[in-house]
Amino acid sequence: MRVAGLVTSFLMSMMVALPGYAWGPDGHEIVTGKAIGLLPEPLHSLFEQHREDLIRFSNVPDTVWRREFPERGDWHYINMDAFGYHDPGKDFPRQEPAARLLYDQKKRRGGRLPWAVKDYYDELVQRFRERDWPGAIRNAGYLSHFAAESTQPLHVTKNYKGQETGNVIYELDYGDPNVVDRDIHIRFESGLVRRHRDELEKRMQPSRAGRISDPVEGAFRMLSNSLDHVQQLLQADKEVTEALGIDEDYESFVGKREAYCSALHEKLGDLLVERLELGAGFLADLWVSAWEEAKK
Ligand SMILES: [Zn+2]
User: Distance, CA 153 to ligand 1 centroid (Å)?
Assistant: First the structure.
């Protein structure tokens, strides 16, 4: 079981990162691994024993579902700023039916990320209660995916690749080996993470905030915090491309890729560490809370 998990995980880590859907595979691996390190016993031993499987399942919503369940595409984001709320973190509907109604009324895509967090949290509680350990590991991995998405700023905004702010975007499709160059969304969450993975993991010092009594509310805390960083991220990309004279001509990017990546890392490295730390802490809080709830 563990060997199979290891092989699959290795194969998946070789795949091209999946843009627009998630932290790349590296991001989800990092968050899952760091969250395991924050667990108390006996959960720590159980999850440590299944580390490779947890990591594998944490990427399944991008690698497998993307192909098999394209209708789940809107589980990976929520457009907090698309509906005219003065304070979306406070005012956005917490109940999914109310949010659906809002999306229909405004005729806008909204996303269901916080409710995907809740779905897998509830499922994990149930699997723990039934002492269904393989099911618990599978759902804990799925939960990891959506917990981590909540801390990626570009997963909470309608301007998710800077298309409304004039950030440079190239027409590269998913099959293209250079797709991580495409836009700031994927340049940040996949390109930058992969390039600096070792350093990021060394620098990260995640911590738990505490027990989560309401996973939707917990998710909204992360989401509104993410929203506060959207501007900083888009601005950094813009400053770097402008300073280097990178424009809509893709050749101009290719020739300056190294300089772009270094400069972006300079500006956003700390933010990246902070977002991944927050994701790991949130995930560990969810796992522990589900465990405690199952014991009731
Ligand atoms: Zn995703």
Answer: 13
Task: Please tell me the distance between residue 243's alpha carbon and the centre of ligand 1 in angstroms.
Answer: 31
d(CA 130, CA 138): 14
Count of domains for the chain: 1
Work out the number of other CB atoms within 10 angstroms of the CB of residue 117.
29
C-beta separation of 176 from 169 below 8 A = no
Q: Judge whether 143 lies within some domain.
A: yes
- Whole-angstrom distance, CA of residue 60 vs CA of residue 25: 10
CATH number assigned to the domain comprising residue 245: 1.10.575.10
Is residue 185 scored above 70 in pLDDT?
A: yes
Distance 149 CA to ligand 1 centre (A): 6
Q: Is residue 74 part of a domain?
A: yes
> What are the residues whose beta carbons fall under 8 Å from the beta carbon of 165, sequence distance 6 or more?
159, 234, 238
Q: How confident is the model at residue 11, as a pLDDT?
A: 39
Q: 199: domain range? A: 7-294
In a domain? residue 1? no
